[in-house]
Design a protein that fits this description.
2 domains; eleven-stranded mixed sheet; alpha+beta; Aminopeptidase; 11 strands; 22% helix; globular; single chain
Length: 232
């Protein structure tokens, strides 16, 4: 029996169609930072944890996404482990927004970076828009809500970088941009999926109202390679 492509989506993407944009270290792959600063682990084994540590410069840290939590070793510190709930919309409940949801282009990238810096939905590399389309809501010249596409896997497309400016929450803007991106995914014959922090109940409820269902848990492992003992 083969694994489902969503059982370890980042690994499957980085070892598949994004292989040319990643570096391989045995059962570990690091995405080109121009797309995002993140690592994928095929399985959490002692050999792969050691390979991840060796792949990092001393003193640096990265978020490694894996099907299991990573435990600390002598060569790798674990700064934080966060459960990530994977949700899939097999039957999307479309939401029609009362405000305009615009298709974004490279001309909008600086505005996207400003919003991402405020809301922190995850890293947005300078070439992130090459991975898929983005939709957003503007208030005048100010981008106040955003969602886009990231990974594409055997009939599935991931929604990512979902964020709403704190001053504009409670207006269904997040629901509007997610729905717009998801409808575009479905129009291409793909199924939308996404990951959300397992303790982010408001976001989970929003996605449930759009027809997303719970599939499995993944783990965001923020890890750091400590400095050599001679430098501490």
């Amino acid at each position: 029996m083969t694994d489902h492509p969503l059982d370890n989506p980042l690994w499957n993407a980085l070892s598949g169609y994004l292989a040319q944009h990643s570096r391989a270290f045995d059962g570990v792959r690091l995405l080109d930072p121009d797309f995002g600063t993140v690592a994928a682990v095929q399985r959490v084994t002692p050999a792969n944890v050691s390979a991840l540590a060796s792949a990092l410069p001393y003193g640096s840290q990265i978020v490694a996404i894996a099907p299991e939590p990573i435990s600390p070793t002598a060569d790798l510190e674990v700064v934080q482990v966060k459960p990530l709930l994977q949700m899939v919309a097999e039957h999307l409940i479309a939401f029609e927004s009362s405000v305009d949801v615009a298709e974004l282009s490279a001309a909008d990238f600086s505005s996207m970076l400003v919003l991402v810096e405020i809301t922190r939905p995850g890293p947005l590399g300078r070439r992130a828009m090459e991975l898929g389309g983005f939709r957003g809501i503007y208030d005048g010249e100010k981008l106040v809500a955003l969602a886009g596409e990231r990974l594409h896997l055997n009939g599935y497309t991931e929604l990512a970088t979902v964020c709403t400016h704190p001053d504009y929450r409670g207006r269904n803007y997040g629901k509007a941009v997610v729905s717009a991106v998801a409808q575009g995914v479905i129009a291409r014959g793909q199924t939308p999926f996404l990951g959300v922090n397992a303790d982010n109940t408001p976001a989970i409820r929003l996605y449930e109202r759009l027809g997303f269902t719970h599939r499995r848990m993944l783990y965001l492992n923020t890890v750091r390679r400590p400095l050599p003992a001679s430098e501490t």
